[in-house]
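Teaching note: in complex prediction, the entire set of molecules is handled at once rather than each chain in isolation. The prompt given to students was simply: 'Predict the structure of this complex.' The entities are:
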Amino acid sequence: MPGMDPRRLLIFRTVVRNGSIGAGARELGWTQPAVSQHLAALEKEVGTTLLLRSSAGVTPTEAGSRLAQHAEAIAAQLEAATEELADLTALRRGTVRFGTFPSAAAVLLPPVLSRLRETAPDLDVTFEEIEPPDAIAKLREGELDLALVFRYPCSDVDAEGTLEWSPLLEDRVMAVLPQDHPRAEDPDLTLADLAEETWVAGCERCRANLISSARTAGFTPTVRHSTDDGVVAQRLVQHGGGVALLPETVLEATPVEEVVVRSLPGLDSRMIGLLNRRGAQAIPAVAAVRDALVAEAAPRTSSAVMI
Amino acid sequence: MPGMDPRRLLIFRTVVRNGSIGAGARELGWTQPAVSQHLAALEKEVGTTLLLRSSAGVTPTEAGSRLAQHAEAIAAQLEAATEELADLTALRRGTVRFGTFPSAAAVLLPPVLSRLRETAPDLDVTFEEIEPPDAIAKLREGELDLALVFRYPCSDVDAEGTLEWSPLLEDRVMAVLPQDHPRAEDPDLTLADLAEETWVAGCERCRANLISSARTAGFTPTVRHSTDDGVVAQRLVQHGGGVALLPETVLEATPVEEVVVRSLPGLDSRMIGLLNRRGAQAIPAVAAVRDALVAEAAPRTSSAVMI
DNA sequence: CAACGATGCCAAGTTCTGCTTATGACCTGT
DNA sequence: ACAGGTCATAAGCAGAACTTGGCATCGTTG
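The expected output is the structure of the full assembly:
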């Protein structure tokens, strides 16, 4: 770090621009001796006379004019910095790197983006489909600003730690049966009644939820197929591949007519929410995206948790 | 003036470069809370969160990284400024605008310039022939850094005021007679003996000196010709145009064989010296030129006045 | 799993920077 | 000669800012 106080450099600049110490002091809102002392200190710091004093004011020496030029450049840089920061805080600029899990990408994201185009037109939102575990990693490494993730009650509280979790809405898990299933329309159907079925499991974490739910219902599911694609899962069910548990948003995003969707007692919901590094909510651009998401999620479920 | 303390900006920069507040503090030679407080103040000043804190250190927000970039630019500018100043004080750079009166330009200047080429090869000396009165004006206006001027004892102390005078050497005034002058070789010749002669006067100030000297010798000279060119004056004397008073340096610079040069009692000397704005001696480049001139002038006369 | 080491923040105390007021010197112009 | 401009210096005081000490949190390690 150079041994020159940059504040004094700026003071020096205003003095040079004004042609006299007193005038510079007035512009700074200070008294003349204050500025005079600063200039003396600056000259001591740089070890050279910068100004020739006379009763008519001051004129810079050669070293003084060169230094004043540098000071001008620094002042301009400061000006630019404050302006850029103002733009960032006023959302006239800013980028948010946003990651969401696939099914939310289909359902929630488009309206949110269009909402943002209105409220913060100059905000750049770069968006990425990403599974929750990877999202957590990327958030930690600072490669992502905000992530829309889901979590099942059974899942450990994750390694939150430095991350911040804001629940958005509850995504009910539904049972999906083939149309010709004998109890497809049975109003008294429970999860335990499906103990002997073969199952189509979803992604790894959805499968964990299936197993957890089944355990509390008293059985261990026989998993025949595994896919994290909602359509594939439903088609498998449709064609007799088994039964499945799928979240409501997935079923809403990619409805398949030829299957029966049932809400069963004892099925958990998964929570959909936002994840970000602790403190990132303070970043205006991030907050803007969060607000848009909250506004979009609110009407979707009465049990939505506001933040 | 932007409302952001540039020192804090530099502190912020070192913290970002180090990845943690503590490490930044160590580099600055401070304690961690000191830096922490500065960062908090900076964030308050700009109204935005700049760093995301974690137990692993800090990572800049978007605003933080942009600001850090500006801070880098400012630091570089400061670095460049200190370097340039160091060059100026070390005489690795620098320009001196130097003015001298004509006859000195011929005699003193060439050796001085060659001397400077050795001691300060990267020093720019721009040189200008200028009469003392004009030199004073240009010094006042800051268009000249240093001037070599002469002054006669009779001349008022000039309007020194804000200017600084350093005597260099004494320039004796000599009488110039035609070779066929009846008393050309008379060892007892005095100025009073030339009362009835007609005179060739020099420049305005030299003429003033002639009149002043003549008055103390008891007569008023009859001036027939006037010229500020030393050669012309001597030629006029040679061809019977009259007698003249000319400074030694002029006679030395432009010797004319066919005249007789006499040192007479009661003739004043003119002082040759340096003039500069008060305080300009502190400028290294100016001091270098002055030193070279002093070194050059010293052997020329035993009565040289050192500074 | 507990302890350690790293990170950060906060509160309180003390040092010292830095601003003000007051004064004096100097040059300029009337 | 004096009034009005410039700047420097000295003394005093307030607030900034650095330090010390204590604590919370997180990640790692034995």
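Point out the following to students. The two ends of chain B are 44 Å apart (CA to CA). Chain B touches chain A through 53 residues (CB under 8 Å).
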